[in-house]
Design brief:
Order of helices and strands: HHEHEEHEH
Distance between the termini: 53 Å
CATH architecture: Orthogonal Bundle
Helix content: 40-55%
Number of strands: 4
Largest sheet: 2 strands, antiparallel
CATH superfamily: EF-hand
Strand order of the largest sheet: 1-4
Strand content: 5-15%
Radius of gyration: 18 Å
C-alpha cells in the first residue's frame, strides 16, 4: 500500500519537477521567449517578475501583508522590483549589447 501511495504521489510530482530549470542552458531556454538564443531585458524582467505577479492577490502592484513570503517584511512595489531587475540585468550584460547570453546569465552581476 505504501508503494502505491508513493507511486501515485510521484506521478503528480514528476510533471512539476520537469518544469524546474536545472542549469544555465535550461534557464536560457525558458527565459528566451522568442527563441533567438539570448535573453533581452524584457524577457528577463518578465521571467523574474512572474512570482510577484502570482503573489499580488489584489493586483495593486504592491506586495504587502499576506502577499509577502511568510507574511513578513516591508511592502515592495512592482515598479521598485522592475527597477532593481533592470539594474541587475545591466550589471550582468558584460558586453553591453542589451542581451544576456548563457555565459552572462550564469555569471553573478558585477
Amino acid at each position: 500500500m505504501r508503494i502505491l501511495i508513493l507511486l501515485v504521489s510521484l506521478s503528480f510530482a514528476l510533471p512539476v519537477m520537469a518544469q524546474v530549470p536545472t542549469g544555465t542552458s535550461d534557464y536560457l531556454a525558458r527565459m528566451d521567449s522568442d527563441h533567438d538564443g539570448r535573453v533581452s531585458i524584457d524577457e528577463y524582467v518578465s521571467w523574474m517578475t512572474y512570482a510577484f505577479d502570482e503573489r499580488d492577490a489584489d493586483h495593486n502592484g504592491v506586495l504587502e501583508g499576506a502577499e509577502l513570503p511568510g507574511s513578513r517584511g516591508k511592502p515592495i512595489a512592482r515598479t521598485t522590483l522592475v527597477a532593481q531587475l533592470r539594474q541587475r540585468f545591466a550589471k550582468q550584460d558584460r558586453n553591453h549589447d542589451g542581451f544576456l547570453d548563457a555565459k552572462e546569465l550564469a555569471s553573478p552581476p558585477q
